[in-house]
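Encode chain A's predicted structure.
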Amino acid sequence: MPSTPDATIGTLPDPRLEERVAPRPAAHGAAVQAVFNDAARDLPVYSAVHQLWYDVVGDRDQEPGVVLEVDHDDLPWLEAPTPDREWVVVLSSSRWKAGTGTGDDYSAYYKYDLTLRERDENGDLYKTGKACSLRVVPQFSDLNYKDGNSLTLQYGEGTLVRCSTTWADTADEVEGQMLDVLERVLDVDRGRLLTDRDADSRRIAKAEAHHRFDIGWKRQVVETIDQTRELIAYGGMSEIEAHQLRQREGYLEALLDADRWHLLGFERTTYDIELKCYQAAGWADIPREDPAHHPKLEASFAGVDGDGALPHVDDWEEVMSVLRSIVSAHLDWSGVGRDELVADDYQPGPASPEYRYRHPAGRREQLRERFESVSTEIHREALKANTRAVYDILRVVATESGASYDTLEERTGLARSTIRYHVTRLVDVGVAEKVSNPVLVVFPSLAVLEEAEDILRTIYPDDQVDDMKERAEKRRDRREERDDPGTVDDQEESDDQADEAGDGDRGRSEWAYFEDLSLKPHQLATALEREYLDGDEVRVRTDRRTWVE
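Encoded structure for chain A:
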């Protein structure tokens, strides 16, 4: 994930924390994992599942194979199946990242999945709202990666099992489901499993909390997520990734993944948290009275960076407390109350029980600080000395509520490389963002867009559409008079000479041969594809290869 740039605009006012009462967000998806140190046993869990696959399935074309028929009365966490169906556990396999041998002698091991499904009388399998799946992975000392490097065994030899499920309120519930499935599928003693389980390896791999709310409040919730992203980025060097897909047919309305939520007053964590607003695919065709028509706001544990350790299961309540407080606070900031919540088959919506959480107050002051600083940057950029290039770019982005490079090139008359250069600078100082593919240049939020419109109107109050068209034509005419229409040189420093050169720093650019960089080919390709690097930042020699055009 890319880092936000240095906070050149300022710092956030410290938040105030208040005790609040709110409807308790429901737990949703959850996953825990553990290593069973059973390598010395005659048949480790991994080996038992491996053998079961050969005994019951035997051919990957026959996957998944049914390995257990389940009576829901035997499992307290399992409800009765859909009429005319039964619960079964199915087994499937896929190639894993480690194996034995190297080079041509390398042989990959497989990971196995034990998954709960419903089966009808015809043998067809069905997913349901109740999920439970176990992934079984080998943890043996003789395993290595294909390149020959040894597999790291953080918690000793044996079997790693990860259990993923839904609608579990505690880590104990998830661990209980893991043991229930292993006990019944493998006919293994539960006491043996508990003896072999490494206590420190019991880790949280996934946790989620959410509320479903009325669709009429979606825009407010998305705007609140936008504001939070701005504040986190503004408050310091946060690892942050954000996506906004606002198309009506879209599934994901807004997503924010960051590691500095404490800047807003939430508990400091050692892991990333993702906040997203999303809806079911095809929600627009679902009747409004159906809960699936309405969006969810969900906060989830989004993993750790590098070699950091996952949270221990003993920290489950702390993790869920942070996730729930983030959901509740954002709904409060959006104006979504208990009456706006929507119930479904798995959570009671407006009838959710109350809980207490620490609510970060002072958000208005934080937003004002951020808003004023962005306004200052818009003023500064639009009034760049000797040029109206940036003003014209900002004006098009404001007028169009977001503009592609093609639109900016057409409306401003600036060279594509000049537009990329200025847009990159605007992104670096927090005035603009680049979203989607192809790139769309936008302001960070609707509030900033509205402020930008007011600022741009006051800077040059007499500037009309025809004036910008005239500037655009003059820029194109000046480029056509040069030998290379795509060239941007240091003579283009003002409106009088051609105001599309951007900064004088262009003349002091530093270049290096690719072979002298630590960058790998695939990293360069990814950087270009995702536009972390612009097209005018990479050069390719074309006179040695006829196929390079």
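Confidence is low (pLDDT under 50) at residues 1-10, 235-240, 242-250, 485-508.
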